[in-house]
Amino acid sequence: MHATFTDRITVGSTRRTADGYLVADAKVARTGVQEYLGSELGRPDMPVVRVYRPADEVFSDSTLRSFAHRPMTLEHPIQGHVDASNWKDLAIGHTGAEVVRDGEFVRVPLVLMDAAAITAYESGKRQLSMGYTAEVHFEAGTTPDGQHYDAVQRKIANNHLAMVDTARGGPQLHIDSAP
Known about the structure:
It is a single chain. The chain contains 4 helices and 12 strands. The chain is mainly β.
């Protein structure tokens, strides 16, 4: 007997599970300079603060560990952080454990489990933004690639990953479109 078999495979990093969840592997953070409003950093005297996120901070063991097992949210929560008291109301999925460096980026596996969030993804909301705490040291300087900065982030500790319209870290931080 001769039979022909065809298998369906997913090309790329995004797929749907049998349960309807959306699973992806995505860049969620990067090194380099990012712009913040001065008012966001307690410096209303500065309209914009260019904050440097050095590779040794972004890829430190403690920072990389803090990307794992984080709740995902649709937009950043108004109260700022996700914890045991509000997780059930805010979480739409979570990040996985296999956090890796990908050049200047951090890449993590993630799963969207909420139907409304998956619909938002299908409608084009695909960029990602980490919610985190960090020490901000106001010290001007220039990055190794020549960018000016006003402050440096240190001791980054991630709290959640938000699916947003526009990521502060740039459009490279996104969930790929489904194949």
